[in-house]
Amino acid sequence: MQTSQVSASSGSNAVNGRTPVPITVAHGDGIGPEIMEASLRVIQAAGAALEIETIEIGEKVYLAGNSAGIAHSAWDSLRKTKVFLKAPITTPQGGGFKSLNVTTRKVLGLYANIRPCISYHPYVSTKHPIMDVVIVRENEEDLYAGIEHQQTDEVVQCLKIISRPGTEKIIRYAFEYAKAYNRKKVTCFTKDNIMKLTDGLFHKMFDEIGLEYPEIEQEHWIVDIGAAKLADTPEIFDVIVMPNLYGDILSDVAAQITGSVGLAGSANIGDGFAMFEAIHGSAPRRAGQNLANPSGLLLGAIQMLVHIGQGDIATKVHNAWLRTLEDGVHTYDIFKEGTSVEKVGTKEFADAIIARLGLVPAKLPAADYSNAKSENFNIKLKARPDQLKELVGVDVFLHVKNRDANVLGEKIKNIKAGNMELNMITNRGVKVYPNGFPETFCTDHWRCRFKSEELRTSTFKDVMSVLDQVYALDLDIIKTENLYTFDGHSAFSAGQGQ
Ligand code: NAD
């Protein structure tokens, strides 16, 4: 780990009359080092007062045998500075390597990922001249919990985890963000017509928390049509909040349709930490050629400057950057004959911004962060009473090679324990016993549901008795899932076709 001060010192430790703020910087992989060097050079020239600790993360660390891609000493630096400016890294393909991006967001509790995607028409060519969308992506949960298992020869699974506090935090964050930045509308995307419990909770929390923000327009879209609308008419959106996976995918789409995925930065905000980065990856094919657009990381760095209370520097950098775009000085990804004036590399683009420090854009709206506060809105969760949880049954998952549902059904149909009896068997979620369709294709992965029709209460002893009886039939139990009611409402999905 190396420490260095950025910008010219005047006096003991002060930089331009300010005490330098400690931050941790990682130069990353692929195009990372080039865009980081360019971004730091620009903010340094603008007078950012930073005390930089440099850490090594990513490919080199992974390939040296550290499957997390980050050394312990790097965590020490992050814990100390609590502010992280990170270039993209390459996650090696294959098993064993965990995504460091996902790990960092989760270990540091960076629950909100804010990704502004803006068009710079007519200076950057885009099919969508009017676009100013902020995607607020939930950053810790969903399928990115990364809990995956192979359970049978034919079936693997990934758990989608959506928590009430995680959801409440991100929804509140989206509304607080809209309020702070004078945004008029918050839209929520989910797929709750299919995932009624997980995405259903996200939608329900959106409706519930939304009541506290009557001044902000609110709407919900099913994610598929929402995504289509976002790609087609982004001008109808303002702030969009969504679960992790949809947010990851759609923020790339949104950034790309503004002109380039290289144009969007992102802030990852938690209660005690913040990480700033570009939304794109390490683009290895463009590495080392002085080609990459550093704008995404630079915009991340601007969000960081606001976060650490150097809004005046953020304003200066942002306006010089806008002026550079207006002047048609463009990297290859946004260069277009007729619109652009000069095609430049990463370094020359940074030089062009530095040459314009102090200027403001002539036509594009100028940035002004003089009153902007940190994007950590200090979200507090609502106190909620415990719910009454009652066990009413169990799903027993089996690995059975024979694809005939009736053979399995006949074998286990007489199993009973307490109030539980065989209710149905499903395969990939669709009911196949009793009265399944012979046309339904079955894999070797079966779910056998034991419960009473009326959801009468059971005990865990009953569950163990069911398992004993299944085991006695020489069946291969691969997992179980208890079935509960909460406050009397069934809290598990029905079988498709049930
Ligand atoms: P990518 O975003 O790295 O690149 C996709 C393409 O987009 C590039 O080939 C290039 O044409 C263009 N592009 C991206 N950034 C650009 C820029 N700044 N300037 C100009 N053009 C740019 O996506 P990928 O190729 O799918 O992923 C490469 C690696 O990056 C993978 O290892 C992936 O895991 C990693 N990744 C890291 C992060 C992160 O560190 N936050 C995020 C996404 C992907």
**What share of residues are in beta strands?**
15-25%
- Unreliable spans are 7-11
Q: With helices defined by DSSP (H or I, 4 residues minimum), what is the helix count?
A: 13
Architecture (CATH level 2) name of the domain at 1-103 and 275-370? 3-Layer(aba) Sandwich
Strand order of the largest sheet: 1-3-2-4-13-12-5-6-11-9-10
**Spatial extent as radius of gyration:** 26 Å
Structure, described:
The protein is α/β, with parallel strands linked by helices and 498 residues long. Among the domains are: 1-103 and 275-370, Isopropylmalate Dehydrogenase (3-Layer(aba) Sandwich); 389-490, Alpha-Beta Plaits, CATH 3.30.70. The chain is 31% helix and 23% strand. It has helices at 32-46, 59-63, 72-81, 100-107, 164-180, 198-210, 223-232, 244-258, 295-307, 311-326, 346-355, 405-412, 460-472; strands at 2-6, 21-26, 50-55, 83-86, 112-118, 132-138, 148-150, 156-158, 185-190, 217-222, 239-242, 265-269, 274-278, 329-330, 342-343, 389-399, 416-417, 420-427, 430-433, 445-451, 476-486, 489-490. The chain is elongated and about 80 Å long. Mean pLDDT is 94; it is low at 7-11. It binds nicotinamide-adenine-dinucleotide. Nicotinamide-adenine-dinucleotide binds next to loops.
